[in-house]
User: Fold this.
Amino acid sequence: MYKILRFIFAAVIAVSSFFGIPVFEEETGLNTVAAEITEFSGKSEIVFDKQKVNTVEIELETAAPAEVKICNNNEQIYHRSSSDAYRFCAFETVETDKLTVEIKGDAAVKSVKVSFKQNENKDFRVTSYFVSQSITAPNSINPEVFDVVTDAIVFGCITFDENAEIKVDTSLLEPALTNVRNAIGNRNVNVYVNILGPGSDSGITDWNEQMANQAKKHSKAFKTRKLEGQIAEILEKYNLDGIFFDYEYPIEKEAWNDFSRFLIRLNRATDKKIGLAVAQWDLGMSYSAMKVIDLVELMQYDLFDSEGNHSSMTSAVNGYNAVKDNLIPKEKVDLGVPFYGRPADGGAYWYNYNEYADKLADIDYTETDQGKTYFNSWQTIYDKTAYAMSRGLGGMMVWHYSCDVYDINSDLSLFGAMKDCIEDRQVG
Assistant:
């Protein structure tokens, strides 16, 4: 996940997708539209029959900085600033007959829609990565996080090389698994491990050459047919629910074909779940491989827009559209969000949200030693969770646990934002 330099190059490829206005449709669940208007001045009172509402969707003519405030009977219930052309403004359900919507910015408004959205998926997931180096100490995991997290992926302790030799760092894996399971207690949470393949040779500076070199090494390992049995043994030995691959970089179709064939063979070797972490610009698995993949973690971060935001709401929408356009079953997909910040200039710096949380109430950026730095605020995480639920995605994915504030009941907790959103919008 923390891919340091190669994320920068990935962002260069992805940035062009932010300049168009995405297509927004195909909502799922129980949705009731209270009102929709296409003529809007800077501040308008939207009147409708008294009913429950929890969402205001705003489409601007173009992407531009704008501040949105929403009030219910003079009480502010939503406030967020961003540069997205499409705003999915989600808030706790209120019963009312009017909302006051104020939009401060230069871009013209195409439409404003007020609605009530609920989700019937009782199995909506929250998947989080747990970086092993961060959770080996006792009490490093707050057990309450598993009131939200349904699937835990332990990261950073298993690798393989181009000769298909697997290395398990037991000094990290075993205490990490112990601490995760102790924190889970009696809760029903799936536990996975991530396995990383070989990196590119040192001295290669061109991104395309790096990716080709890594793909070549991975393909060599896959073709040995030695990995499948070794992985199956590890999953059984540690009583894991499955394995995740972080495979975002193959550019050539043949590299994806090699990986797809490997996944199909792995599925025959184990009955445990198989998951992938991928980026929107790199969805190249075969149809046959897609059928044996159980979970897809869509990494919608480190993809910079023109303002320098690496994980805007537009990024989430683009990820959804990429999944839809590739015919990937939506119920398999978790929308990935960052619990960390990146500087607006795309520099190779990563800042934990918990170090800046008190500065990010309803905006996604603050100043760090690298200047303007973009995060996902509490409100953004709430909005993205609500958006994923409304589009029928299987869940949310977090990189990574240790970046959030420890207390999920804090008003600043991003896991708390997910919890609040799910509780408000899940039926039953």
